């Protein structure tokens, strides 16, 4: 099993500094979620101690109980306490859920001058379910893949607004050979949102495996070709980041997915797209209408 802490240190070092300009302000992250993440890293952390942290935030407690009592778990009796929920899910899975849920909530409350937040939310969810399906094929951690894919672009609504002139140019000037977003960011800003987001997550005390998956999510085929990473959740998230989205982060993403299907027999793109679409549709709230993968697959099959 990959030592994510050692890998993170090898790439970011022990005390990495943020690359974001000081004027960029990010959403306030729930204190209870941050504290839970930090405490959960301790070997002697108990469900009772961690439950007391969760219970300081009533909204977070309700989200956790709603999640563990959902039909997906098929429990005979309803769980009524945070401690019981943590014991049922496990500390690590609870941590991933709290972090991804908190970030999703923070993003819903943001605005962007160049990104449609509702579409952005739907695209994140579609990518998360897709990453889960790819993780199954790789026999990797599906919970980590889902959470990392949900969080991968969490800083985009804020930085696209607060650094509006730079991102406006990317949004409107696609040209005949449009750049990928991370290439444009590196050329224009000297950094990209994947690396910047990972550094913010490090500052907030997030788990190293989550940080690394977000940091690598636009490394694409390089992750799949890496003998250390190819069977991990990072590879699943990297493949999921090829998905088409409203901001067109990877303009040739659909072509890359089709190419991957041609080389990987187990990777059945249309079947995965159909499963992902069903999962998003089951949530309701009209999110499926903003998802682009199934339509992209149908268009690719028609050509």
Give a written overview of the molecule:
The chain has 303 residues and is an all-alpha fold. The protein folds into 2 domains: 30-109, no CATH class; 113-303, Orthogonal Bundle (Hypothetical protein af1432). The chain contains 18 helices and no strands. It has helices spanning 4-12, 31-40, 47-54, 58-68, 82-89, 91-108, 117-138, 142-151, 156-162, 164-172, 181-189, 193-203, 208-215, 221-225, 233-240, 253-263, 269-283, 293-302. Helix 6 packs parallel to helix 8, helix 7 crosses helix 15 and helix 12 (193-203) runs antiparallel to helix 13. The longest helix has 22 residues, at 117-138. It is globular and about 55 Å long. The mean pLDDT is 89.
Descriptors:
303 residues; mainly alpha; Hypothetical protein af1432; 2 domains; globular
Quaternary structure = single chain
Give start-end ranges of low-pLDDT stretches: none
The gyration radius over C-alpha positions equals 19 Å
- N- and C-termini, Cα separation: 41 Å
Order of helices and strands: HHHHHHHHHHHHHHHHHH
Instruction: Let me know the CATH homologous superfamily of the largest domain.
Output: Hypothetical protein af1432
What would you call the structural class? Answer: mainly alpha
The gross shape turns out to be globular
State mean pLDDT (0 to 100 scale): 89
How much beta, percentage-wise? under 5%
What's the CATH first level of the largest domain? Mainly Alpha
Going by CATH, the architecture of the largest domain would be Orthogonal Bundle
Q: Helix content range of the residues, please?
A: 55-70%
CATH fold-level topology of the largest domain: Hypothetical protein af1432
Number of β-strand runs: 0
Number of domains: 2
Helix segment count?
A: 18
Report on the biggest sheet.
Answer: none
